[in-house]
């Protein structure tokens, strides 16, 4: 009885080792750069931005003036119908619009906030 159990146990162990051996011998080329296919349209860049030390292209941008703010939206993808899933946005308040301001009397004001949304990380104010 023990010989039969050892025989089947050895068979299962050998099968398991063979499965692990074949699964470990994959030929993935993770270091090869991914080139777009011939039918992928390469959009012209209007600039670049750097995020986490990596330079990214800016493909499209829009600017609007609404409610006393001048808002700029830049995206690494084409903005279609005013919608995009990845973008960088900033707004400037039109505090001195239409006024003559003596720059020698201005002081630096660092009261601003930055909201960053990332699908992988959560940053709060």
From TrEMBL:
<feature type="signal peptide">
    <location>
        <begin position="1"/>
        <end position="25"/>
    </location>
</feature>
<keyword id="KW-0732">Signal</keyword>
<protein>
    <recommendedName>
        <fullName>Fimbrillin family protein</fullName>
    </recommendedName>
</protein>
């Amino acid at each position: 009885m023990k010989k039969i159990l050892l025989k089947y146990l050895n068979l299962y162990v050998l099968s398991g080792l063979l499965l692990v051996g074949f699964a470990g011998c994959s030929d993935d080329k993770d270091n090869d750069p991914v080139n777009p296919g011939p039918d992928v349209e390469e959009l012209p860049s209007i600039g670049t931005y750097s995020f986490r030390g990596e330079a990214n292209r800016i493909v499209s941008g829009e600017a609007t003036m609404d409610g006393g703010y001048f808002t700029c939206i830049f995206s690494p993808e084409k903005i279609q119908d005013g919608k995009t899933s990845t973008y960088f946005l900033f707004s400037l308040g039109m505090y001195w619009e239409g006024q003559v301001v003596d720059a020698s009397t201005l002081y630096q004001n660092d009261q601003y906030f930055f909201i960053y949304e990332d699908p992988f990380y959560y940053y709060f104010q």
